[in-house]
Design brief:
Elements lengths: L1 E8 L5 H16 L4 E8 L6 E8 L2 H8 L2 H13 L3 E8 L7
Antiparallel strand pairs: 1-3, 1-4, 2-3
């Protein structure tokens, strides 16, 4: 299992403009084979900071995700939305267990 945790940053005044693109990309990503979780959440103390969480079955599913049209569209929108700061880290994890 692969887990991606991190952040992206955009100008807070652009959040309403970015929301439809983020919703489209997140919805399409969640529907992909091998996607176990995919979410974006606005930080409550920093309006322009978006927290990213992704969980994938395996490397093949993640690599297929990177080749999808919705990811290409999302990445193409970054400059216009002012998204410049991305900090995402990939972790390899074992089986998930409730704690």
């Amino acid at each position: 299992m692969l887990v991606i945790i991190g952040t992206i940053r955009l100008p807070a005044h652009r959040l309403d403009e970015a929301r439809p693109a983020m919703e489209k990309m997140v919805s399409a990503s969640r529907a992909e084979p091998g996607c176990l979780e995919y979410s974006y959440a606005q930080d409550i103390l920093d309006a322009g900071l978006i927290r990213v969480t992704e969980v994938w079955n395996d490397r093949a599913a993640l690599e297929a995700h990177f080749r999808t049209p919705h990811i290409a569209d999302w990445r193409a929108s970054w400059a216009a939305l002012g998204i410049g700061d991305r900090n995402l880290v990939l972790y390899e994890a074992g089986d998930a267990r409730p704690i």
